[in-house]
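@channel sequence for tomorrow's demo:
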Amino acid sequence: MHELPVTKSIYQIVLKHAKRGNVKRVMSVNLEIGTLSDLQDERVQRYFDHLSRGSIVEGAKLKINRVPAVFRCNRCQQSFEVDSLLENDLSCTQCHSRAVTLVSGREYHMQLKEVRRITYASNSDTGPFTDFTLEIDARLVSGTEHTDYGITFRRQCRGNFYFFTVSPDGTFTVGKQVKNEWYPLETGKSAFIKGDNSTNSLKVICDGPEAQIFVNENCIRTIADDSFNGGRVGMMVGVREQPYGHAAFDSLEVSR
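structure tokens (generated this afternoon):
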């Protein structure tokens, strides 16, 4: 349980700096934790998920990097690294003295990264649609593997809709925006997503609270959520690390 107060401190610091920078959504947090720390990565992530519910940090992934411990020899002042506190490790690598002092290896560092910027558009002259099939061809024109592009659906008004995006690294996200807050519903990787600048055929079949998600005619997920029962459709592009992204869309079709 000692992970809880530490994770709470991490969450509070992330939230503080995100709000100070007018960040709309935090997608990930980079952490460096010393190898001598007894914090368990899975527990830290679990507590972080619990604490961040309903905030701009909800859904953020902790990217934890374990850094080696550094000791300094009290006799010759040589510094050396160890991976654990095994007795044989705690001797100077140069003079073999056991009179050593811990310099670092129990602390943790963090860095905010991947602040998502999103642009999306829909046609106000068509729809709204309730139960329907939406199909579109989409490809990345410029950007990196961290560019997300895809579709919005059941958009009721600004800041209230579902979305489905893919990226060149094979990842996808299905989620929703409710009152301008982003909530991921399903994320993962799929071998059916084509990388680089290849065209991906995206499809969503909405029937009541369920939505089937397709990439290149392959169903990769089925979600159930009743936040929105109808609305308009559109396209969206999101960037995480780089300041730009350009995607092309073609052959948008909606059928009932």
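heads up for whoever presents: The longest helix spans residues 3-20.
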